[in-house]
Amino acid sequence: MLTCYIPQLLKKEVKAWFPLEHPHVAKLYGVVQLPASLAMVSPWCENGTIVRYLKEKNPGANRLQLVSLITSFLLFLL
Prior knowledge:
The chain is of the alpha+beta class. It has three helices and two strands; from the N terminus they run αββαα. A hairpin with a 2-residue loop joins β1 (30-34) and β2. The protein is 50% helix and 13% strand. Strands 1-2 form a two-stranded antiparallel ribbon. It has helices at 2-17, 50-57, 63-77, and strands at residues 30-34, 37-41. The N and C termini lie far apart (33 Å). The mean pLDDT is 87.
């Protein structure tokens, strides 16, 4: 059953995200349990996801520069 697996997925995500310190990654402040759900708490990202940013906020963004930033983060994870 998926609902039994969700806390395990959340725990895995929190363990991976919480210790990260990188200028291009939002900080994870913690987890909150609501009556019907669990939620991870991080700063509000004004531009939303990268897809929303590219479609709605800045369609002319320098995609090569964005790929470079994403690559630097992926190398950071190694």
